[in-house]
Amino acid sequence: MKKMSDLEKKYINALHSSSKAVVYHNHKIKDKFKKLSKSKNDNYLLGVKNTSQISKELVDKLTEDQTFLLHTIDKMARGGRAVDPELINPLTMRIMTGSSSGGCLNILEGINDLALGTDGGGSVLAPAAATSLYSLMAKGMGIQGNCSRISTDNLEFRPGIGFISHDFKICTLALKKLLSEKELALAEKSNLDELTVALPETETVILPHGEDMAALTAEIEVELSDYQVNRIKLAGSEKRKKAIEIIKKTFNEGNEIIITAEGPIDYYGYGDSVAGSFKIADFSQKKSGKYLMRAANLVNATAISIPTDRLGVALILLARPGIKSGFKVIKLAEKLAKNYKRPELFTRYFLENYRKSENNFLGADNFDQYFK
Fold this sequence. Notes:
The protein is an alpha/beta fold. The chain has helices spanning 6-15, 33-36, 56-63, 101-108, 125-130, 168-178, 181-189, 213-217, 240-252, 273-276, 282-286, 323-336, 344-351, 366-370; strands at 22-25, 44-49, 68-74, 83-88, 95-97, 114-119, 134-137, 149-150, 156-157, 160-165, 196-200, 228-232, 257-262, 302-307, 314-319.
């Protein structure tokens, strides 16, 4: 039996997927695999959110050197909604978090390595956190959508563009493909000396599963010992307008990065402005586990989610707008991510399960022989 490459296995996974998460599968990509197999360079399969906010020029730039290959168009929650009732989160068995919903599922199903999404009020950070994936929303570094729009709770904004992956290094690699040489040069100048970080004050936010947010962020405080750490009150931050107010105040006070712990995302209740507009649903909205992540794009921050060892719970890092601050939060995230390891069963079931494709009938050369 011919041994399949990882690219071929992911292609086969998309081919026989019955999930609505795949809007379109690029069959032509298979013709490139043979040539790429002779290259020593790494290649990654890319899914792009089905939205006009992501320009063709941006995708062309990202895929120009074939490090990233456009593989699928991924489902977006209808109307950019914060939940997607048409998809199920295979990790939590709840309705999938939106609106970059399809991209996350296509990573968990072994179809893609990277999802390109848009974030208006948490639509990259939240679904990534809900599925224990990494994300990098780069609005603060100038990576944004084509035009302004109105959010589900009547706030005008331009969406940020973000990256979701099973590996944070893939997110940063994709970002660097979109930045200019001048912007990339600032990475070397963006050290973490004299960094000021804001953490949640104790007992101002109790997460839906009963844990104090401050107790969770305390687990990474040893990694922050070289920096100035300030405490901020986050009471009421489940409300988007209050979250915006808190972030702006914290940045204005001289803090460059804010770190929270948020979740379990959409596990005990759904954070959805549409349903939340009804009085009885407000209680459920408060249990969604979403706090500052819902406001990161609206303050033009660069924001990152790092999965933890708790189901649907992530560290959320927000940096002030600007390229240098963006690179600083990336460097800090790389440092903090080493503190958390997702359960081995999660890795084996979701991130490695696609390798079993060669045991399926469509594996090996059967597709070429019978269905090409």
